Amino acid sequence: MQGRIHLVRHAEGLHNLRNDRNIPNAPLSERGFDFAEDLGHRFISENSNCVGAIVSSPLRRAIQTSLTAFHRILDSTQYPENSGMGVNNGVMLALDANLQEITDLPCNTGSGLNDLTTEFPGLKSEIQELHKNWHVKTGPDSPLTQPPSKRKPEILQQLEKTLAGLQNQPMRKDVIVVTHEGVIDLLAPTADIHMGQWQTFNLVRENGLLSLK
User: Fold this and answer.
1) pLDDT of 49
2) For position 80, what pLDDT does the model report?
3) How far apart are CA 53 and CA 92, in angstroms?
4) Of the candidates 171, 166, 158, 176, the residue with the CA atom closest to the CA atom of residue 36
């Protein structure tokens, strides 16, 4: 049986709280961290021991949501030493630049690799796998050469590969995807996922096309 996709929208960002889109690579608000912790409790109560992979947007608020919400699932090496967060032999958080928010507003524009590594040293190896210009959204230096609508098949194909890689695991076949409103609208246009919430889907292929249902 193929695993499921749990599509998560990040918790409240500081730009949401202040209604200020000019906050660079907006972090979670203090309340957002509480919401993310609550998200994790609720998720585990409904989906215990089923997650084999977690993939996040590399924007700050999505990484913070992932690390805060899913510290009962993620590997302890991805957290600061002696933090008490994470579990031994846990799931490794992966980063996918295709999951970043659509627009190039300051709040939706990410940080360079060095800045990200300084802020999240436990994710150094995952950060270094990103394109050096992953956060550049316009111009000749941007790796995002296709319009946002073209991201959908790329994201879904990558999720299909991730699910396939979990098929030999007895229980942990599900994938958590932590992303943003704009990307959720691309992947699941009829979904209504508020900040700090999630919705569960099956990845299906019909007439050669992938979709979340």
Assistant:
1) 95
2) 94
3) 7
4) 176
